[in-house]
Design a protein that fits this description.
Blueprint lengths: L8 H17 L7 E5 L4 H12 L3 E5 L5 H11 L3 E5 L3 H7 L8 E5 L11 E3 H4 L15 E7 L7 E6 H15 L6 E4 L6 H13 L2 E4 L6 H11 L3 E4 L1 H13 L9 E4 L6 H10 L4 E6 L8 E3 L13 E2 L4 E5 L11 E7 L6 E2 L3 H7 E3 L6 E11 L5 E6 L4 E3 L2 E3 L1 H9 L4 E11 L3 E10 L7 H9 L10 E4 L13 H7 L3
Parallel strand pairs: 1-2, 1-3, 3-4, 4-5, 8-9, 10-11, 11-12, 24-25
Antiparallel strand pairs: 6-7, 7-17, 12-13, 13-14, 15-16, 16-19, 18-19, 19-20, 21-22, 23-24
Length: 493
C-alpha cells in the first residue's frame, strides 16, 4: 500500500512481469544491474521485482542523492538501465553523461522536457509491454548492490546474493515473530537496507507493507497508522525522538502496534520506557547490524531490563565471536573486534578487491570467509554483546553511514573556505552528529547558517553538518596531516 492506495500481490506480479519484459527488450541480461532512483512508491517496488524476474541485480539509490554521487554509482556499477521519477530529472539527466553501459531511462510521472543523452521511456508504457518470463537464477547469483559510504569518499557497492537476502529476511521474520497478518509501516528509504527489508519481509510473508516517502509530516502518518491498524513500526532514534516530542505536546497511543524495532544507533534506555506509553502492546527490539551482512544481533524484548545496554545475541542461523587485532580469541568481559559467520555475509565490494580483503577474513574452518566488522564489542558470559565503539572514521547518523571525506569535499567547494575537517560526535538522538571545523580565507564573511545551506545544495540532508566550528587554523600531525584527534581533544564536549 502506498499513499492510501492499496495494491495486491497479483497486481505486483502483473506489473513486475510487464516491466521485466521491457527490461529484457532493452538488452538486460542475467546479472546486469538496474539502478532504481525513486521515492518510496509503488513504481519503486515494481522495479525491484521486475529486475529480479528479468535476472538482473537491483541498485536502490536514495532519492536525496545528488548528481555527482548518482553519476559515480551509474558508472561504477555499469548499470544497464536507470528507472527514476520525473521530478528527479534535474538530478539524473546530468548524471547520464559518461554512463556508457546505460541503454535507456524509464521514467515514472512526467517525462523531462530537456534533451537527454539516453532514450527516456514512460514507466506506465513499460509495465504494459507483455509479460516477461522469469530468468532462471541460482541462490549464489547477485541479487542487489547496496551502496554504502566509504572512507575514500566514494560509496562502496555491497554485493548481496539471492541466498543471502532470502536467508536474512527469514531470520528477521523468525526473531521478530512476524506473521502474514502483520501490517508493516515503512517510513525509511528503500535504499537504506533497513527500509528495504521491511518490503522483503512483507513479500516473503504475504503481509502488508505501508510505504511512506518519509517522516516529514508525522501527523499524517499517525492518522494512517490508526486507519490501517499498523502492527509493526521500524524506526531509528531520530524518528523516536520526534515521536516522543509529539507525545509530550499531545499524548499518542497506538495499541495496534505489537512490534517496535530500532537499529542504526543505540536507543537510549529512557526512550524505551517512554515509548511503552505510545506503544502499550508492543515488544521493543534493540538491534545492531551493518550493510555488509544486513543484521548481526538483536535483544529479546523481554530481556531489556535484565541486559541494559546490550544489543543481544546473533540472529538465528548465524554466529558471532570476538578476536583481538592479531586474531586471538577474547575472554568474556574484555573488548575485542566483532566477527560474523553466516549465509547473510556479503560476497564483497563491487570492483573493490582491496576493501573486500579488509572486511572478509579467513574463518574458523577451511575455505570459509567471515565478516570482520572492525567494530569493538564486549561479550558477557551468556553471549550477550555490548557495543564499545567503531574502529574506522565513518560517521553513522540518522541510520545512514556518512563519509567525512565526502562532506569535506563539499565544504572545500564553497568559496571562502580554506580548510576543513569533519568528525562525528556523540549524539543521543542521531547516534552521531556531524561537526565541521572550518578555516576561512582572509576577509571571508561566511556564517554557519550560510555554510549549512550551501552544503544542503551539494549533499543529502543527513550529511549536512549539524555544527560548524570556526578555527583560525587546524592542528596537524608531524607529517602535516590534519589531526582530528587533537581537534576533538581541544574542543568542549
Amino acid at each position: 500500500m502506498e499513499e492510501g492506495k492499496p495494491y495486491t500481490y497479483a497486481q505486483l506480479l502483473r506489473a513486475a512481469r510487464g516491466l521485466a519484459a521491457t527490461l529484457q527488450a532493452r538488452g538486460l541480461q542475467r546479472g546486469d544491474r538496474v539502478a532504481i532512483y525513486m521515492d518510496n512508491t509503488w513504481p519503486s517496488v515494481v522495479s525491484v521485482y521486475a529486475t529480479l524476474i528479468a535476472g538482473g541485480a537491483f541498485i536502490l539509490v536514495n532519492p536525496q542523492t545528488k548528481t555527482d554521487k548518482l553519476q559515480f554509482i551509474l558508472r561504477d556499477s555499469g548499470a544497464r538501465l536507470l528507472i527514476s521519477d520525473g521530478h528527479l530529472a534535474n538530478v539524473f539527466l546530468p548524471a547520464l553523461a559518461g554512463a556508457e553501459a546505460l541503454a535507456c531511462v524509464i521514467c515514472s510521472g512526467e517525462l523531462p522536457a530537456t534533451q537527454a543523452d539516453k532514450p527516456i521511456e514512460p514507466f506506465d508504457a513499460a509495465i504494459s509491454c507483455g509479460a516477461g518470463d522469469r530468468v532462471p537464477t541460482i541462490p549464489l547469483d547477485l541479487a542487489a548492490l547496496i551502496y554504502t559510504s566509504g572512507s575514500t569518499g566514494n560509496p562502496k557497492g555491497v554485493m548481496q546474493t539471492h541466498q543471502a537476502m532470502v536467508f536474512a529476511a527469514g531470520s528477521l521474520i523468525e526473531y521478530l515473530r512476524l506473521s502474514p497478518d502483520d501490517k508493516i509501516l515503512c517510513v525509511l528509504p528503500l535504499a537504506f537496507d533497513y527500509g528495504l527489508y521491511q518490503l522483503l519481509m512483507a513479500v516473503t510473508l504475504g503481509a502488508t507493507v505501508i510505504l511512506e516517502r518519509s517522516f516529514i509530516y508525522p501527523a499524517q502518518i499517525f492518522e494512517r497508522m490508526r486507519q490501517q491498524q499498523v502492527t509493526v513500526f521500524p524506526g531509528v532514534p531520530t524518528i523516536y525522538s520526534m515521536l516522543l516530542s509529539a507525545h509530550g505536546r499531545s499524548p499518542l497511543c497506538f495499541p495496534s502496534v505489537t512490534r517496535v524495532t530500532n537499529t542504526a544507533a543505540a536507543l537510549p534506555d529512557d526512550y524505551v520506557t517512554r515509548l511503552k506509553e505510545i506503544f502499550p502492546n508492543a515488544l521493543i527490539y534493540k538491534m545492531y547490524g551493518l550493510t555488509e551482512c544486513k543484521r548481526v544481533s538483536y535483544l529479546e524484548p523481554e530481556l531489556a531490563d535484565a541486559k541494559p545496554g546490550s544489543v543481544g545475541k546473533a540472529i538465528p542461523g548465524t554466529e558471532v565471536y570476538l578476536l583481538s587485532a592479531d586474531g586471538q580469541p577474547i575472554p568474556c568481559g574484555e573488548t575485542g573486534i566483532l566477527h560474523v559467520r553466516g549465509p547473510h555475509v556479503m560476497l564483497g565490494y563491487w570492483n573493490r578487491p582491496d576493501l573486500t580483503e579488509h572486511m572478509l577474513r579467513p574463518g574458523k574452518y577451511p575455505g570459509e570467509r567471515v565478516l570482520c566488522t572492525h567494530d569493538h564489542f564486549r561479550m558477557d558470559a551468556e553471549g550477550f554483546l555490548y557495543f564499545v565503539g567503531r574502529t574506522d572514521d565513518i560517521i553513522k547518523t540518522r541510520g545512514e553511514k556518512v563519509s567525512p571525506v565526502e562532506v569535506e569535499n563539499a565544504l572545500h567547494g564553497i568559496p571562502g573556505i580554506r580548510e576543513c575537517a569533519v568528525v562525528g560526535i556523540p549524539d543521543e538522538v542521531l547516534g552521531q552528529a556531524i561537526r565541521a571545523y572550518v578555516v576561512l580565507e582572509p576577509g571571508a564573511q561566511l556564517v554557519d547558517r550560510q555554510i549549512r545551506a550551501l552544503c544542503a545544495a551539494r549533499l543529502e540532508n543527513f550529511m549536512v553538518p549539524k555544527e560548524i566550528v570556526f578555527r583560525a587554523e587546524l592542528p596537524r600531525t608531524v607529517t602535516g596531516k590534519v589531526s582530528k584527534k587533537l581537534l576533538l581533544e581541544q574542543s568542549p564536549a
